[in-house]
Specification:
The protein contains 17 helices and no strands. The chain is mainly alpha-helical. It has 2 domains: 179 residues, no CATH class; 271 residues, no CATH class. Helix 3 packs parallel to helix 5 and helix 7 packs antiparallel against helix 8.
Length: 472
């Protein structure tokens, strides 16, 4: 059940009607959300719900224990046990085959008879997001930043709430769990704004990201040797925009859907390619993950409170592990390590020359932006290429410095131009468009949504592409 599909929109509509019919009664409205969440995830594969239920049971038991225990070694042992369980499940399902496969390759290279066989476990959709959400809850309880006295039902609903279960944003307990029992309230204007946000997300996905993927990115990354070096460069830039519109479109739908039921999810993107350094980029890109890594990995490691060497080590470890979080492939570790090394260099430059403060000149901003954008695009080759060998082939083709552009179709150029123009538009344009939608009469809003649907049908006539982050 894709977020931009008719089935999902029908589920949202039915759930919305049932939820607000019983909105004044706590348990009936929570049951409506719970049933809708089970229906949504079961449309993928219901089996992983058992794993998610195990996560919830552990958080429920350990949360109650941590709430009652005094600070000390025993309380810390409960936290470690919960973290060991959460990370252990994630490692087994997501990374064990990667490690076993790597061991088998080493054994083969050494001519050893013992070669481990991969288990072939199917990675449950959304497991990484559920695991990180569970970890944030149990750590927050340990830090006494949230209450551990939640019912098992609340824990399960918090983890499988359908707008965000498969690809985030990673929702903290303060943004959902602590608000489940509060009486919901959504004005007509807020409801219209939520619909606009959902429509905006669908348009980003189907009219920009998917068109860019099918007409431009996928053909070149599949067979880079068939294209010139300049075409490969443009495909990498196009992928940089594709992944933004794909994932920010998903986030728009998730945030808009949550808003229909009275929940305000945090923003996940803030014009990341406007950043003038790599630190700023990560403060604007996939914000729920970036802040999670900061609060639950970087700062516990010591953050920037230790020596300069320790700060650099922490930066590298966080980015390398954050890269590996994206997928069970060493290319993701390399991608994260590249960002870690570049952040270390940025930090060293700041230590030597001082971090820019106050107003910065246009030339310095342009230089900073250019360095940031080229670093992001360069690293994206490893992120997008299906294998390390294909990534090497892509770079080899780029450095042929050939400039032929004959193989790029008109649709590809149109999609590329559209994504650049749409991204470059000031936020006020989208805000004003949303305001016009909200203030318009119902019949005009209906016509606008119908027009969007017809445009999608006309332009995106190919098979819809899976969301990029569904695989993580």
């Amino acid at each position: 059940m894709m977020f931009h599909g008719v089935q999902f929109l029908a589920l949202v509509g039915l759930t919305f009607a049932a939820f607000w019919a019983v909105a004044n009664h706590r348990w009936p409205r929570l049951v409506v959300l719970f049933v809708a969440s089970l229906v949504f995830y079961s449309a993928w594969n219901p089996a992983p719900l058992l794993i998610f239920f195990g996560y919830c049971v552990v958080n429920w038991l350990c949360g109650h224990l941590l709430e009652r225990m005094l600070d000390g070694p025993a309380r810390k042992a409960v936290l470690i046990a919960a973290l060991f369980f959460h990370l252990g499940i994630l490692i087994v399902y997501k990374y064990l085959d990667l490690f076993l496969g790597s061991l088998a390759s080493v054994a083969s290279a050494l001519s050893l008879t013992w070669r481990p066989e991969p288990l072939g476990l199917l990675l449950p959709i959304g497991l990484s997001f559920v695991a990180f959400q569970c970890i944030s809850f149990i750590v927050d309880v340990y830090r006494r930043q949230t209450s551990g006295k939640r019912s098992l039902f609340h824990q399960v609903l918090y983890q499988v709430f359908f707008p965000q279960v498969v690809a985030g944003p990673i929702i903290r307990s303060k943004d959902l769990l602590e608000k489940l029992d509060a009486k919901p309230k959504v004005t007509a204007e807020e409801g219209a704004a939520a619909l606009f946000r959902i429509a905006q997300g669908i348009a980003k996905k189907l009219l920009v990201a998917d068109v860019l993927a099918v007409s431009f990115v996928d053909p070149i990354f599949t067979n880079p040797t068939n294209y010139s070096g300049l075409e490969c460069v443009l495909a990498t830039i196009a992928y940089t925009f594709q992944i933004y519109f794909d994932f920010s479109g998903y986030s728009d739908i998730a945030i808009g859907t949550g808003a229909l039921f009275g929940f305000k999810f945090p923003e996940n993107f803030n014009k990341p390619y406007h950043a003038t350094n790599l630190f700023e980029f990560w403060n604007r890109w996939h914000v729920s993950l970036s802040t999670w890594l900061r609060d639950y990995l970087y700062r516990p490691l010591g953050g920037n409170q230790g020596t300069k060497g320790q700060t650099l080590r922490n930066l590298f470890l966080v980015m390398a592990l954050g890269g590996l979080w994206h997928g069970a492939d060493w290319k993701f570790l390399l991608w994260g390590s590249i960002h870690g090394c570049l952040l270390m260099i940025w930090r060293l430059v700041w230590w030597k020359n001082g971090k820019p403060k106050g107003a910065v000149g246009f030339g310095r901003k342009l230089l900073g932006w250019s360095l940031m954008f080229n670093a992001v695009v360069f690293a994206r080759v490893f992120f997008r290429a299906d294998t390390m060998e294909l990534a090497r082939t892509m770079f080899a083709q780029i450095f042929t410095f050939t400039t032929d552009l004959a193989r790029i179709s008109t649709m590809a150029w149109s999609a590329f131009a559209a994504c650049v123009i749409l991204y470059a538009m000031p936020k006020i344009v989208f805000d004003k468009t949303q305001w016009l939608f909200v203030e318009s009469p119902v019949w005009l809003r209906t016509l606008a949504l119908i027009a969007l649907g017809l445009s999608i049908r006309q332009i995106a006539s190919f098979e819809s592409q899976p969301y990029i982050y569904f695989q993580y």
